[in-house]
Amino acid sequence: MERFRKEMSIFEALAADDGARAVLESHGMACCLCIGAQSESIEAGAILHQVDPELVVQELNRLSGTEA
Question: Cα 21 to the chain's mean position, in Å?
């Protein structure tokens, strides 16, 4: 089962794994500084930054070895 899902909030992703910040920032998503991180989903943040949400989630899941 995947640990990260595009529907989860950015805040949840940041809390779930210390490496999530680096993954998000590698896509231009400085989410740890964003006020919307607590309620905005990974998908919404990725779309806002013109990034494929599926790619972001895939990279996040590699952190914990739960990539499908």
Answer: 8
Residue 42: give its domain's CATH number: 1.10.3910.10
The type of residue at 12 is E
| Torsion of the alpha carbons at 42, 49, 52 and 33, rounded to the nearest 10 | -30
Give yes or no for a contact between 41 and 64, defined as CB atoms under 8 angstroms apart. no
d(CA 34, CA 37): 6
Residues in the chain: 68
Domain assignment of residue 5, yes or no: no
pTM of the model: 0.85
16 has pLDDT over 80 = yes
